[in-house]
Amino acid sequence: MRPNTKYSSVAIAIHWLAALMIFCAIVMGVYMSGLPMSPARLKLYNWHKWLGITILAISFVRLLWRATHRPPADLPMPIWQRRAAHATHWLMYGLFFAVPLAGWTYSSASGFPVVVFGVLPLPDLVAPDKSLALALKSVHAGLAMALGAVIALHLVAVAKHQFLNRDRILSRMLPRVFESRT
Amino acid sequence: MKSRLRIGVIAFALVGASPVMAQKLETAQSEIAFTFRQMGVPIEGRFTKFSGQFAFDPKKPEAGKVALRIDTGSARFGSEETDSEAVKSDWFNVAKFPQASLDSLAIKAAGPGKYELAGRLNIKGTAKDVQVPVTLIRSGALTIAAGVFTVKRLEFKIGEGDWSDTSMVANDVQVKFKLALSGMAAL
Domain count of chain A? Predict the structure, then answer.
């Protein structure tokens, strides 16, 4: 046991699960919005909404876990990098909530209530309104692109630490089975 | 020959015995809306253009006649994308079937202010008999005929091809109407 050099297994599990779901949601979102009207398009829209709500829910659990569990200490690095890393993390947390909430509001404004997995109807956040829907579409897409950009920054930073600084940063977030290889 | 003559006499006697006044459909105060589920999500639409002929006396419902004509191209969903989809051949095929109709075959009383209309519903070239419960309420000078009934969309080939998948778009479509009629006798 090396205390506090590694994220807890719950944090690790949520991190990778959320990573996979967010990646899928962004790819789906970009792909489906360009499709012509078809059952496939409607299916993707609904799956995307279900996925987004699941990401929102898991982000609540994640935030709660993060607030009640101490993450490993920062690796040695210049103060500006440390600040940038923390800012990036908090920005990502903010967007984990903002992107799905904007999408849910967009769906409400478009007159399509979100029914999770086709069975759990969620309340409408706003009344149907065409111009609001149009504005929220851009907000949702813009925030999602921002999240994509911040994630890209996060990945570049991980790569820099892992391959240039060789400080084994990745091992902090890897399940123990993969740890020895990094 | 004899029976036809008899039918003619009976029909003449019926018409003569019960001169049912015609009513006017006040379309501005009327509404024909419908709801269906798409992957669990309720989708609402309405027809904005329809007309009707009504000859109905609440005291003599059996003698009543109702004929509704609905412009299938007037379906509005609050989303332009859906509006323009609904006119296509997979859905209402408005180019070929611009009108849907409901014609009464028999009307009978079903309690105070309540009636049961048996009618023939014709959509997209397919005719089916339907039972429509109707409630009449007096509202000032108008009589409001309201009711809800369910149509199985696939019986009328509404949503063909890939769209016939009922796990995507449910088969049941709830039709909700509220028709304002002027010139009807007291209930």
Answer: 1
For residue B84, the chain A residue with the least C-alpha distance is A37
- Whole-number pLDDT of residue B83: 93
Q: Distance between the two ends of chain A, CA-based, in angstroms? A: 17
Instruction: State the smallest CA–CA distance between residue B80 and chain A in angstroms.
Output: 10
Is residue A91 exposed (0-12), middle (13-18) or buried (19+ Cβ within 10 Å)?
A: middle
Q: How much is the pLDDT for B16?
A: 47
Residue of A nearest to B83 (CA): A37
Ranges in chain B, pLDDT < 70: 1-19
- Rounded to an integer, what is the distance from CA A9 to the centroid of its chain? 18
Confidence (pLDDT) at B185:
85
Decide if A42 and B38 are in contact by the 8 Å CB cutoff: yes
Side chain identity at residue A4, one-letter code? N
Q: Is residue A155 a part of any domain in this protein?
A: yes
**What ipTM was reported for this prediction?**
0.78
Q: Could you tell me if residue B183 is left (phi over 0), alpha (psi between -120 and 50 degrees) or otherwise beta?
A: left
Model confidence pLDDT, tens digit, residues A77-94: 999 999 999 999 999 999
> Which residues neighbour A97 within 8 Å (Cβ) at sequence distance 6 or greater?
A56, A59
Domain that holds residue A41: 9-179
Judge whether A59 is closer than 8 Å to chain B, CB to CB.
no
Pair of tokens at residue B138: 């007096």
For residue A144, tell me if it sits in a domain: yes
- Choose from A32, A42, A120 for mutation: most chain B CBs within 10 A: A42
Option in A37, A119, A130 nearest B40 (CB): A119
